[in-house]
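Worked example

This section walks through a single chain of length 87. The input is the sequence exactly as stored; nothing has been trimmed or padded.
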Amino acid sequence: MNPVQWNAGGKTPAEWKAEANGKIAFWGGGVNAQETLPFKSVAEIQAEVRRVVADLSKGGRYVHCNIHNILAEIPPEKVVALYTAVP
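Given that input, the structure is written out below as tokens.
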């Protein structure tokens, strides 16, 4: 499934993963690009990435990247945090 906008429909990443039951792979969804990435701190971005990756990568079938395109207004340090926070 690409893109993975896990916050759509009011579900958590863990709920989406459980509902998929290993039948599909998730591509994206590493951080909320509409709220967290533009408005939160680097530390908050890293915390969300770690939490989302832990949920969506459980059992495999996950490719980490942002939910959607990264806008030009996003500071580079936030983009770096999106990728370096992956355990």
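What to look for: The first strand starts at residue 26 and ends at 27.
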